[in-house]
Q: What sequence folds into this?
């Protein structure tokens, strides 16, 4: 929509000022939006006083929130954008206002961030241009302008880190980004661009429950990831895992999302020797036991990823007894067979037998307790002790990682002993139940005996009385 | 009589002069007629009361009053005390059988018009005992301090509070406060083991004394029985032995109920939990409870519930005073109308109890 | 004086005697079947115990400083801790993560859960690991040398 030439630009570029030099490459200029489009005034007049008169609407250099308001005057108005022939979205300003950047700055009189903070003022180009400050390859530098300045960030949130750039550059994303790959993740890919929310905000794309989906936006897209030749099934696998179910379905923030194992800004999959350390930040006991077990040295020598070898990485399911032992589905038999490693094979088999015994003892104890309860017998203490049996089972599952038969045997042994006691108590209660019924039977027998003999006694008595009466009425004496 | 019994009798006789008493007791006869079977129910009620006293005293040895310990002490009796389950279940079952037997006894007396002069006081004391028995049931029900009892007590005492003027003070007196709390439990315990037994004993003594003095009543039209005849049975030993036989069977029944239908304990009462669904009083209050449900919220300018309670009060008063206004029976004439009213009453109670149970 | 107008003649044939024996025997058996349960009932069972809104932990002197003990409260475990300074705390010993039973770790100075390394400080607050909530606190009362725990209202 080229009207008359932009007189503001004509004069000011003749003056050689920086703004118009930049503006010459600005997309607004190329689309025919004059300086007056933001600054107001009459762009068609060459006369300075007329062009820059307040009557003509000249507003000078906008300051503070006024800047974004000017941008929004067009960019938030779909009708205006349509008239200007643009298909750009128009929700940026609204998003900015509700974002964390839309809060008021330390001055108190304006927002922290204006449109120009990231996009620049005069040399605005489309993000896909190499020179745009919001081009994927430049975004990191743009954000770091503020977020890498400790003094600045401290004024808003002293605990917010300022080392994101450094960490980012160590990550796969950062390295490829530095090499010119526009498809890898940079700040805006995960945090958003206009509607950035704090990571503690439930609606934020980087809130723990949302992180898997955010990462999945690229990493689950097979077409997008084709050139990188890494799998794209992690999200699917993760959402089936115990961690995924805990985080995504139960909203348990204690469960790890992608960043807890891979890192945030310095995202890199953990190295082979450090996997048990990473898992061990939560599963400390298992990691400690593994570290002193015979497996540690062997796994490291053979470059086997420690925890992952048996438990998987993304699709970690609940570890049950099935993992232990020498059956085909057990993980032990992947390496140990009876011929080549008979000792280890024996240990695996033995440990599996022990847990099976514990399971059997627990199941039997539970069954008896339920039976006793159903019969209405009071079984509170035994039921309480079942907790300890369960505890032993859980502890045994942890103790497995030490591969120490003695320790393991002791843990399981305690559980079996308790389960046996519980079963004994429950059986006693059940026996008492039948004792009561038998006792009743005997008591009823006695009472029936007594009642019938009493009845016969009464009958005999009355017959005698009857006879006595008849005798007396027949006797002459009356 | 064998030697030792003779000697014992003589020893007591020398000191107390049992002669008159024995002679008097020997002259006691029980009339034999179509309705004689009903004579047993007074004795059965008495037997069940004695069972309650005995099992109640035994339970007292282990029961701990107060909201902290009541529930747990009953749990303790049911699970840890030898035969505790038996004693407690018998106590709970006998309570219900006692009230049932009392109902039957009361209605049989009503239909036989045994309340007519000279037995008016016997009737009145019997009615007093009946109301006390309901009080026993209501107070005893709360003692395990379980969920059902807690809310049933709340509802029951709420109803008492509806009576105008005196209702609120009565409710506060019963509850030991504005709400049902541990104080209510303490009060009910006191009522159940001390106050009610004391008052009941007085009425029982009068009732039994009168029955002994006046002898058994006969149906209208029959002549009174004062001596041996075809139509009478000596109380000692015949009727007494029969009584004992029946009591033995009732005891056996209680044992069977205790073993096969042990009394439940449920959940401990929690004042802050919402009331569970289906709160209702014990069966002997159900017909009144159900009736009140059918009264609309307001009739004319009167509160519906109040009207219902008032109605029950009036009916109860008339019922207690029946010996004094039933002129026909006093004159020895059959009172058909009263019989029909009685039958209707029995029917109403049965139907509404069933309704209350099902709905 | 007689029980009836004529003394009831009770002939003493063997049949009649037999009945009397049965009756007498039955009476004795019945009496025993009543007396046995009643007398057993009167004998107090081994545990004094009715528990549960308040539990006696034991003697204060039996609780060492800087140690923790698990006690049964009704049907739930409670951990009683005596700090190095001598003060007493009691918390529910059921871990708020997946219900394992916690313990006091002298070396950490905190309450620790063996299952997934959850840690709680001595005010019961969850300070590390997966537990999502603090432990419920119980009231500790010392009467003389006896320590009692009860539910906090």
A:
């Amino acid at each position: 929509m080229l009207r008359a030439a932009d007189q503001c630009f004509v004069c000011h570029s003749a003056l050689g000022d920086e703004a118009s030099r930049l503006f010459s490459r600005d997309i607004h200029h190329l689309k025919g939006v004059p300086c007056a489009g933001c600054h107001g005034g009459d762009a068609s007049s060459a006369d300075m006083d007329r062009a820059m008169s307040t009557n003509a609407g000249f507003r000078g250099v906008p300051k503070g929130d006024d800047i974004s308001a000017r941008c929004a005057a067009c960019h938030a108005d779909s009708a205006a954008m349509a008239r200007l022939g643009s298909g750009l979205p128009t929700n940026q300003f609204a998003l900015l206002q509700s974002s964390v950047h839309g809060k008021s700055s330390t001055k108190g009189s304006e927002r922290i961030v204006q449109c120009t903070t990231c996009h620049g003022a005069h040399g605005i180009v489309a993000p896909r241009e190499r020179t745009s400050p919001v081009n994927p390859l430049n975004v990191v530098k743009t954000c770091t302008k503020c977020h890498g300045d400790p003094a600045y960030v401290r004024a808003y949130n002293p605990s917010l880190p300022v080392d994101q750039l450094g960490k980012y550059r160590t990550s796969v994303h950062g390295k490829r980004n530095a090499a010119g790959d526009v498809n890898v993740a940079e700040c805006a890919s995960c945090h958003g661009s206009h509607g950035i929310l704090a990571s503690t905000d439930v609606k934020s794309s980087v809130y723990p429950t949302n992180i898997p989906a955010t990462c999945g936006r690229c990493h689950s897209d097979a077409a997008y990831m084709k050139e990188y030749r890494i799998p794209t099934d992690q999200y699917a696998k993760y959402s089936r895992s115990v961690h995924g179910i805990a985080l995504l379905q139960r909203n348990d923030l204690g469960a790890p999302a992608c960043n807890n194992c891979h890192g945030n800004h310095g995202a890199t999959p953990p190295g082979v020797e450090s996997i048990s350390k990473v898992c061990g930040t939560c599963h400390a006991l298992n990691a400690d036991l593994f570290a002193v077990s015979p497996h540690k040295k062997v796994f490291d020598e053979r470059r086997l990823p420690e925890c992952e070898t048996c438990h998987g990485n993304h699709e970690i399911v609940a570890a049950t007894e099935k993992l232990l032992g020498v059956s085909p589905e057990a993980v032990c038999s992947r390496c140990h067979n009876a011929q080549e490693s008979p000792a280890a094979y024996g240990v695996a088999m033995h440990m599996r037998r022990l847990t099976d015994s514990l399971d059997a003892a627990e199941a039997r104890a539970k069954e008896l307790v339920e039976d006793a309860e159903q019969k209405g017998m009071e079984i509170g203490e035994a039921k309480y002790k079942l907790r300890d049996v369960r505890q032993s089972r859980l502890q045994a599952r942890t103790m497995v990682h030490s591969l120490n038969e003695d320790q393991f045997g002791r843990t399981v042994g305690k559980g079996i002993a308790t389960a046996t006691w519980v079963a004994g108590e429950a059986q006693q209660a059940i026996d008492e139940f039948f004792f009561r019924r038998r006792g009743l039977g005997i008591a009823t027998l006695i009472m029936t005996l007594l009642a019938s003999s009493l009845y016969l006694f009464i009958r005999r008595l009355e017959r005698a009385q009857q006879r006595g009466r008849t005798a007396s009425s027949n006797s002459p004496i009356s | 009589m064998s030697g030792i019994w003779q000697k014992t009798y003589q020893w007591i006789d020398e000191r107390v002069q049992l002669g008159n008493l024995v002679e008097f007791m020997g002259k006691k006869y029980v009339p034999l007629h179509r309705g004689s079977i009903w004579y047993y129910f007074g004795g059965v009620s008495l037997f069940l009361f004695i069972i309650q006293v005995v099992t109640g005293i035994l339970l007292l040895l282990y029961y701990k009053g107060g909201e902290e310990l009541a529930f747990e002490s009953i749990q303790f009796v049911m699970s840890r005390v030898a035969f505790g389950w038996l004693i407690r279940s018998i106590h709970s079952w006998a309570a219900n059988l006692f009230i049932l037997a009392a109902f039957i006894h009361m209605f049989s007396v009503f239909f036989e018009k045994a309340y007519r002069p000279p037995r008016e006081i016997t009737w009145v004391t019997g009615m007093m005992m009946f109301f006390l028995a309901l009080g026993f049931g209501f107070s005893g029900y709360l003692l395990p301090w379980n969920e059902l009892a807690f809310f049933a007590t709340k509802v029951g005492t709420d109803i008492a509070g509806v009576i105008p003027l005196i209702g609120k003070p009565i409710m506060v007196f019963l509850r030991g406060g504005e709400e049902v709390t541990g104080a209510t439990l303490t009060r009910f315990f006191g009522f159940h083991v001390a106050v009610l037994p004391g008052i009941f004993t007085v009425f029982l003594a009068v009732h039994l004394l009168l029955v002994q003095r006046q002898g058994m009543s006969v149906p209208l039209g029959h002549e009174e029985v004062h001596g041996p005849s075809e139509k009478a049975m000596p109380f000692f030993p015949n009727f007494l032995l029969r009584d004992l036989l029946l009591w033995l069977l009732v005891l056996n029944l209680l044992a069977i109920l205790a073993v096969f239908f042990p009394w439940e304990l449920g959940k401990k009462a929690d004042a802050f939990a919402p009331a569970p669904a289906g709160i209702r009083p014990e069966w002997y209050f159900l017909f009144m409870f159900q009736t009140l449900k059918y009264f609309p919220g307001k009739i004319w300018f009167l509160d519906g519930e109040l009207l219902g309670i008032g109605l029950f009060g009036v009916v109860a008063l008339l019922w207690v005073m029946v010996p004094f206004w039933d002129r026909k029976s006093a004159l020895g004439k059959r009172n058909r109308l009263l019989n029909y009213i009685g039958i209707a009453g029995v029917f109403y109670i049965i139907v509404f109890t069933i309704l209350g149970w099902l709905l | 004086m007689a029980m009836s107008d004529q003394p009831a003649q009770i002939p003493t044939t063997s049949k009649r005697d037999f009945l009397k024996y049965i009756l007498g025997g039955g009476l004795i058996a019945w009496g025993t079947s009543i007396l046995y349960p009643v007398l057993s009932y009167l004998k107090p069972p081994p545990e004094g115990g009715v528990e549960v809104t308040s539990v006696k932990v034991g003697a204060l002197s039996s609780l060492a400083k800087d140690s923790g003990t698990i006690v049964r409260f009704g049907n739930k475990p409670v951990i009683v801790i005596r700090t190095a300074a001598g003060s007493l705390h009691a918390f529910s010993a059921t871990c708020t993560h997946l219900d394992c039973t916690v313990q006091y770790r002298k070396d950490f100075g905190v309450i620790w859960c063996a299952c997934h390394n959850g840690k709680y400080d001595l005010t019961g607050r969850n300070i590390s690991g997966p537990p999502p909530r603090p432990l419920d606190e119980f009231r500790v009362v010392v009467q003389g040398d006896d320590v009692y725990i009860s539910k906090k209202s």
Q: What stands out?
A: Chain C touches chain A through 34 residues (CB under 8 Å). The longest strand of chain C covers residues 67-73.
